[in-house]
Amino acid sequence: MKNFLYITVVGVIFLSSCKEDINRIEPDTSSIANPYDGIDYGNDPTTALIDSSSYLGLHEFIFSKKCAVPACHDGAFEPDFRTIEGSYNNLVYHTVVKNNSTNDFTYRVLPGDTAMSWLHERITTDDAVLGKMPLYDVMSNHEIEQIEKWILAGAKNVFDVNPSQPDMQPTNGGVLAFLNDTSGVRLDTIRDNPIMPMKLPNNSTVEFWFLLYDQEANGDFVPGASFTYNKIKISDHPFEFSGVTENNLTVQSAFSPAYLPVAFGGNFLAPYYHSYSINTANFTPGKTYFMRIYVKDADHSFNTEIPENGSQTYLLTYFSFIVQ
Question: How many CA atoms lie within 13 A of 59 on its CB side?
Answer without folding.
Answer: 21
